[in-house]
Amino acid sequence: MPEQEKTGGGESTLTVLVALGANALIGVLKLVAGVLTGSAAMLAEAAHSVADTATEGLLLTALRRSEKPADRRHPFGYGKERFFWALIAAVSIFVSGAVFAIYEGLSTMLGEGEEQTLVWVAYAVLGGSFLLEGVSWLQAVRQVRNESRAHDQGFVQFLRTTDDPTVKTVFFEDSAALVGLLLALGGIGLHQITGSSFWDGLASLLIGVLLSGVAYVLGATNKGLLIGRQADPRLVYAVRDHLAARPEVEKVVDLLTMTLGTDRVLVCARVDFDDALGAADLERACVEIDDSLRERFPQLDEIFLEPVPRTDERLRARVLDRYGAGIAAPPT
């Protein structure tokens, strides 16, 4: 993983575009079916697809804006725009999808409900929607598998640790869409069998709860990335070992990393250099170390090297406060 090449946004863009096209078409079909059948679950699913379509639009914005080069006002670039717009997408899922579905479900369960008509329309739309959502879901799964292999991680582990919120968002919302379609099918079927709209309303309520859970997971992920999450620990340890192996370095005293964007990492290393190095030798060593780090770890975007004495007690105390005694071992 540490030596992987930076991944471009091409596959992420394709994944988002496939999801956008599928959800836009599905949303129209579900809305028509919901109006014709009077099904709360179908209307909830229509709101679900509207939320997903809005989400994909926000993710396209995220992909485009995060690629802007660094400038005077943003010297570290715009990589975190991807995290911001993905967070807004998570809010969109909750506001435009979950809230409506929960409201529609509760009002149907507690009210008289509408009589089902043209149930076959609902079944046909649900079947077609499942096929279209399946195409989008398979594209998301394909990308997750490809990127998890590139990062030398398992499928679930990659989803938990990835710094690319676009593919994670599409995968989770498409998975929720497939589950939501099954819930809607169950609610409509039970309504038809029992004659009670309670089941239709319950399906709508469960769809809203499902969307709320997805929105929470995605929101929490992007909150952590926006705050400034540490890089993948495997990368951190690999950078530390690379620095420690340099002949000019006596000890790596502290190593700070922060995710600046997808496959973009800032590194600040406080290093105790060999005291025999003169000023010119130290400057040359810093340039060579910077070059070697960038060559081995292409995802390193900004690198800062700070010469420090390993015996500085205040620095050691800060490291201990941050990592604990297990990480900040006493100088030897």
From TrEMBL:
Keyword NADP recorded: no
Annotated transmembrane regions: 12-33, 83-103, 118-138, 176-195, 201-219
An annotated Gene Ontology molecular function: monoatomic cation transmembrane transporter activity
GO biological process: zinc ion transport
Main location: membrane
Name of the featured protein: Cation diffusion facilitator family transporter
Organism in which the protein naturally occurs: Pseudonocardia petroleophila
InterPro entries hit by this protein: Cation_efflux (IPR002524), Cation_efflux_CTD_sf (IPR036837), Cation_efflux_TM (IPR058533), Cation_efflux_TMD_sf (IPR027469), SLC30A9 (IPR040177)
Pfam families per UniProt: Cation_efflux
Topological type in the membrane: Multi-pass membrane protein
CC annotations in GO: membrane
UniProt keyword Chaperone, yes or no: no
Segments forming domain Cation efflux protein transmembrane: 16-220
NCBIfam families according to UniProt: CDF
Compartments in which it is found: Membrane
Coiled-coil segments: none
Listed SUPFAM superfamilies: Cation efflux protein cytoplasmic domain-like, Cation efflux protein transmembrane domain-like
Record keywords, A-Z: Membrane, Transmembrane, Transmembrane helix, Transport
